Amino acid sequence: MSALWYFEEVNLFKILCPHKYPEYKKEHSVNAYKKSDYIYFEQDAANKIYLIDKGKVKIGYYTEEGEEVIKAILTKGEIFGEKAILGVDKHNEFAQSIDNTTMVCPVSKDTMFALMRDNVSVSFKIYKFIGLRIKRLERRLQLLLFKDTRTRLLEFLDEMCEDFGYECEKTGDHIIKHPYTQKDIAILIGTSRPTLNTLMNDLKQEKVIDFNRKEIRLLKKIA
């Protein structure tokens, strides 16, 4: 959406933000966060769902050894904290702004349930979205555990292509205009930035991809 988790090219913020509905508008505000500000911590009460209006948020947790593990980096139009809808009482992860201009709209569970109850289509999208996110997290965990770094990168490029890519009619290449920095991508595939740079350049030399700061191009294979 949205970034990693746009749901079928639908900006969930536009659908779910209470500011779009007169009966809920007065009860909700958009909160501003600077880089490194935490939106919630592990073990905080899970009583809200959060909608990103602007900026980036990373979702992760800390191991017993104190190592940070990043599960996702989310951007405009995405939601997080969605496990509250499933009856989870406390967060088992943290949410932290990684942008100096992040704007987030917190929505109480009661309001979200009301929106879902009044709109069957919204309810369906939310639950399907949650299912998609769980599947992607499971897939990423399997990649981190069992696949080498190159394979993880190629899988992630395919995933980004699904979310942000489109086919160039002239060349047949797939062009990915995405919101991630190289540091973001390195974190998400579990590698270092220098290793990512090396792999990206190797793939470029092999004519698998081409890239610049704004986009990545998956080159069409010619038999």
TrEMBL record:
Name under which the protein is recorded: CRP-like cAMP-binding protein
Keyword DNA-binding part of the UniProt annotation: yes
SMART domains: cNMP (SM00100), HTH_CRP (SM00419)
GO MF: DNA binding; DNA-binding transcription factor activity
CDD domains for this protein: CAP_ED
One Pfam family named in its UniProt record: HTH_Crp_2
Keyword Lipid biosynthesis: no
SUPFAM superfamilies reported in the protein's UniProt record: cAMP-binding domain-like (SSF51206), Winged helix' DNA-binding domain (SSF46785)
InterPro entries: cNMP-bd_dom (IPR000595), cNMP-bd_dom_sf (IPR018490), Env_Response_Regulators (IPR050397), HTH_CRP (IPR012318), RmlC-like_jellyroll (IPR014710), WH-like_DNA-bd_sf (IPR036388), WH_DNA-bd_sf (IPR036390)
Stretches assigned to the HTH crp-type domain: 147-222
Cyclic nucleotide-binding domain boundaries: 12-86
Source species of the chain: Tenacibaculum adriaticum
Record keywords: DNA-binding, Transcription, Transcription regulation
GO CC aspect terms: cytosol
